């Protein structure tokens, strides 16, 4: 029975707030619950720690994702939270929960996929746990990382009124790819972006090294919703500009094939694992040009932070693009 206090009423972030009141932070904690990674000081080192879980028929369907796709994406999503700090991954632990009738080849495929996603960043699995589930496959990926030597890292806090909000690459492709899979529409590039996202690790490290960058996070739940986390943590508001939203050729092709407008995918589609950055407005033009030069993809200003209410608006009006919440 649904009560006023069940998870549907609370929502994912309401539940995390409840949990936050119960946990006790360890002595090494610098910044715990509330950022893409926990930030820990261990001796004279800073470490990042993060975990991400996927559940069969909630996050993926075996109808369209291969075992390799499932492992790749779970690992990429967890590593993306290290990218969101501007860090690099050190090592990975993983837990799998499998129904007893699972084929061993399926599990081996998942591990091959995780290895594939980790190959590019020279990290790997050092342990984990294996348990039985009653139904469906569950995969948790925990990553420990660190900042680059002598480098700063970025949290979700730090955006100031007047800063620009910028996004890397091509948000919205993954959401359009998922819609194409669900509707049986051909859109190969968007579908590939959905099944095999690539975390923006090098990009995050580069951005963290720019003095003009003040806050950063990765987009897992949709640009508009995730911008809300930068707003909450920065104590600022942000107004997004509809005309500035980047629509890449792959999203354009997928949206056309679906017969849908592209902008809602950019605002509401998650799981592209692009990075959202607060940039000093005076430096933003130069930083974005240097980023494009360095990585061959855009870093696009899509809005401006202000000292008004801590809300996300689009051209001054409420945003009509719900992001992802597990329970709402
Ligand atoms: P992300 O999308 O970057 O992985 P989430 O939205 O999943 O972040 O989580 C937001 C914050 O809440 C993170 O700091 C995460 O570590 C923390 N968090 C989420 N779920 C739990 C939980 N069950 N217990 C403790 N902390 C949690
Ligand atoms: Mg994140």
Q: Can you offer a commentary on this structure?
A:
The structure is a single chain. This protein has 328 residues and is an alpha+beta fold. 36% of the residues lie in helices and 25% in strands. It has 10 helices and 13 strands. Strands 8-10-7-11-9-12-13 form a 7-stranded mixed beta sheet. The chain has a 6-stranded mixed beta sheet with strand order 1-2-3-6-4-5. The chain starts with 6 loop residues before the first helix and ends in a 10-residue tail after the last strand. The model has no long low-confidence stretch (mean pLDDT 93). Bound molecules: adenosine-5'-diphosphate and magnesium ion. The site of magnesium ion has 6 residues, from strand 8.
Quick overview:
This protein has 328 residues and is of the alpha+beta class. The chain is built from ten helices and 13 strands. The chain has helices at 7-22, 67-83, 104-119, 173-183, 188-195, 201-208, 223-234, 249-258, 263-268, 281-295, and strands at residues 29-31, 38-42, 45-55, 87-98, 125-132, 138-147, 164-168, 213-218, 237-240, 275-279, 299-306, 312-314, 317-318.
